[in-house]
């Protein structure tokens, strides 16, 4: 294991398996990265054909029927869908590393829309899943920069936050295994900053000041 001042670097983790809920923009992009990293990848969607088509080499499965096969589980869903998914799969998510990608935005006001008492969607997920390890990630990178692996001519940098160093390194390993980079944003409480960052990036995109193929670029 190596830890550098520049971020998270984990060379000795052997990737096993990743499950992704959602076969939309982010789900498909993350599925492509996961396959590229050499992981075994399952995609679960309400439409199993859409799940199977998320990226070449994934196993598609139907939401509700599917049994989670991954050790890492990526929630690539709109935040309002989380409650149903967490309620349906809470038992299976116990013991897993769960990655929250969401930007919990009210798209009528572009304010953050969080459940009362929570400063971030990630901390809400952690409260709902006390037996899982939650990592915030992918919410500050537009799907296009994940799919291509680059932003403005440099490898895309994914920002991660978690209270578990091991979980953060395990997630970083598959991202870096696909040729992207990561930075360590700190403990899960930093997710509130990542979600604010993600919201502002979306606002700048919606107002056509920055492109959906770029957005904010973290330089490493
Ligand atoms: N797009 C980006 O660039 C970007 C960047 C950073 C973070 N994010 C975050 O990533 C998440 C997904 O965004 P996206 O752009 O990938 O959205 P998307 O393209 O609309 O895909 C959403 C996926 O969620 C599934 N879904 C929706 N409601 C569901 C429910 N109640 N139960 C089960 N599955 C449900 C959809 O399944 P069906 O196929 O059945 O409709 C679809 O596969 C959001 O939280 C967003 O904030 C997006």
What does this structure look like?
- The chain starts with a strand and ends in a 14-residue tail after the last helix.
- By secondary structure, the chain is α/β, with parallel strands linked by helices.
- 33% of the residues lie in helices and 24% in strands.
- It has helices at residues 25-36, 48-52, 82-93, 121-128, 143-148, 165-177, 191-206, and strands at residues 2-4, 7-9, 17-21, 40-45, 59-62, 72-75, 97-100, 105-106, 111-112, 133-137, 150-151, 154-155, 157-162, 181-184.
- The protein has an 8-stranded mixed sheet, with helices on both faces. A two-stranded antiparallel ribbon has the order 1-2. It has a two-stranded antiparallel ribbon with strand order 8-9.
- The chain binds NADP nicotinamide-adenine-dinucleotide phosphate (NAP).
- NADP nicotinamide-adenine-dinucleotide phosphate (NAP) is lined by residues 22-27, 45-47, 50, 63, 76-79, 81, 84-85, 101-103, 138-139, 142-143, 198.
Quick take:
By secondary structure, this protein is of the alpha/beta class. It has helices at residues 25-36, 48-52, 82-93, 121-128, 143-148, 165-177, 191-206, and strands spanning 2-4, 7-9, 17-21, 40-45, 59-62, 72-75, 97-100, 105-106, 111-112, 133-137, 150-151, 154-155, 157-162, 181-184. The protein has seven helices and 14 strands.
Radius of gyration in whole Å, from Cα?
16 Å
CATH-wise, what's the superfamily? NAD(P)-binding Rossmann-like Domain
The CATH class is identified as Alpha Beta
Bound molecule kinds, no repeats: NADP nicotinamide-adenine-dinucleotide phosphate
Global geometry: globular
Strand order of the largest sheet: 5-4-3-6-7-10-13-14
Structural class: alpha/beta
Summed over residues and divided by their number, the pLDDT gives a mean of: 94
- How many separate domains? 1
Number of helices: 7
The run of helices and strands is EEEHEHEEHEEEHEHEEEHEH
Distance between the termini: 20 Å
Q: State the helicity in percent bands.
A: 25-40%
């Amino acid at each position: 294991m190596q830890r550098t001042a520049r971020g998270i670097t984990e060379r000795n983790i052997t990737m096993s398996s990743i499950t992704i809920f959602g076969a939309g923009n982010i789900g498909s992009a993350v599925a492509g990265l996961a396959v590229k990293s050499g992981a075994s990848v399952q995609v679960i969607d309400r439409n199993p054909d859409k799940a199977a088509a998320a990226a070449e080499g994934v196993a598609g499965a139907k939401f509700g029927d599917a049994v989670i096969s991954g050790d890492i589980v990526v929630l690539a869903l709109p935040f309002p869908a989380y409650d149903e998914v967490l309620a349906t799969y809470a038992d299976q998510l116990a013991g897993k590393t769960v990655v929250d990608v969401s930007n919990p935005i009210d798209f009528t006001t572009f304010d953050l829309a969080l459940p009362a008492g929570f400063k971030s969607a990630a901390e809400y997920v952690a409260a709902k899943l006390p037996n899982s390890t939650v990592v915030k990630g992918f919410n500050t990178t537009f799907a296009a920069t994940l799919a291509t692996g680059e932003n403005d001519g440099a490898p895309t940098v994914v920002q991660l936050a978690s209270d578990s160093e091991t979980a953060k390194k395990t997630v970083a390993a598959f991202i870096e295994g696909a040729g992207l980079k990561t930075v360590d944003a700190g403990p899960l409480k930093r997710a509130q900053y990542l979600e604010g960052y993600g919201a502002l990036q979306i606002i700048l995109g919606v107002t056509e000041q920055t492109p959906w193929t770029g957005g904010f670029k973290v330089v490493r």
